[in-house]
Amino acid sequence: MPPKLNAQPNQSLIDGIATLQALATSTEPVGTRELARRLGFEVTRVNRLLRTLAYLGIARQTADRKYTSGPGMHVLAAQSLFASGLIRRALPALNQLRRFGLTVALGVLWRDNVSYLFHAPQGTEVSEALGRIGLYPATRGGIGMALLAQLSDEEVTHLYSNATDIARFPQGLQPLLLELKEIRERGYARVLVDPERNHHTIAVTVGDPAHSAIGVSGWIPKANTKTIVNALRAAASQIEGVDLAAHVDQAPAPDQGEAI
Questions:
Q1: Which of 118, 126, 150, 210 is least surrounded by CB atoms within 10 angstroms?
Q2: Is 119 found in the same domain as 230?
Q3: Would residue 131 count as lying in a domain?
Q4: Structural domain boundaries enclosing 51
Q5: Strand (E) or helix (H) holding 157
Q6: Same domain (yes/no): 119, 188
Q7: Is residue 258 part of a domain?
Q8: Smallest Cα–Cα separation from 138: which of 151, 127, 129?
Q9: pLDDT in tens, 61-118
């Protein structure tokens, strides 16, 4: 849950981080005017922020005077992942979940989007699963919905107050709040992510308070939901290093001959 501000936020810092994020999520070098348009900022302000980031080595300017990620951005990413230990703790648990033959993912919530730190479709090598997908609308998948359910209705309403279109919820905020209420009551998310193939994502949060979520996605018959949820809860407990028995319902082992 986002902390409540006890003082006036520093708008310059907020704008700088917004510029940094926009640069980080751009797949190609981007010009100052284009970045200003995406952010809704004045060109002169974005130019000043980009020059500051370039001075710090977090951004770098290309030969055609556009900007892209600099070495400092990669250093910050590597240092933060190493210091948190999340990926290091999560990889063994995520690899165990691959036994179900489904896509396995670990994601974190950033505003109204999910960033996948790990996303491994069946057959994907671990080295290819790290950071392979950028920002993804939180309401579109199970991991995002599981994390949004950790917020209060007031926080979710504020988050989507300026949204003109909420992915998967064309009727607006109220159906989203209703589904989040159901997720809180169940303790996990089960979301239909591909109606044509009848693919669902099942996800649970990691940590207390939650800092991330893990999930599996694919063809998952409803009868197998409890088995999957138990496995996800066990994996979440393994990542956090806590007692598994307190987080896993008693259920029979999955039938090895059953397609899930």
A1: 126
A2: yes
A3: yes
A4: 11-75
A5: helix 153-159
A6: yes
A7: no
A8: 151
A9: 999 999 999 999 989 888 887 787 888 899 999 999 999 999 999 999 998 999 999 9
**Number of folded domains that form the chain:** 2
Q: Looking at the structure, do residues 135 and 218 belong to the same domain, yes or no?
A: yes
Q: Which residue bears the tokens 């730190």?
A: 117
pLDDT digits (tens, 9 = 90+) for 34-58: 999 999 999 999 999 999 999 999 9
What is the reported pLDDT for 130? Answer: 82
Q: Is residue 4, in this structure, part of any structural domain at all?
A: no
Using only C-alpha atoms, the chain has a radius of gyration, in whole angstroms, of 20
pLDDT of residue 246: 41
CA distance 233 to 231: 5
Taking the whole predicted model, whether its pTM rises above 0.85 is answered as no
Confidence at residue 109, expressed as pLDDT on a 0 to 100 scale: 96
Residues 155 and 218 both lie in one domain = yes
Three-class DSSP category at 153? helix
Q: How many CA atoms lie within 13 A of 179 on its CB side?
A: 22
Same domain, yes or no: 113 and 31: no
Position 258, amino acid: E
Residues 55 and 142 in one domain: no
Q: What is the DSSP string of 163-178?
A: -S-BTTBTT-HHHHHH
- Contacts of residue 7, Cβ cutoff 8 Å, sequence gap at least 6: none
Q: CA angle, corner 147, sides to 134 and 179, nearest 5? A: 115
Residue 3's pLDDT band (cuts 50, 70, 90): low
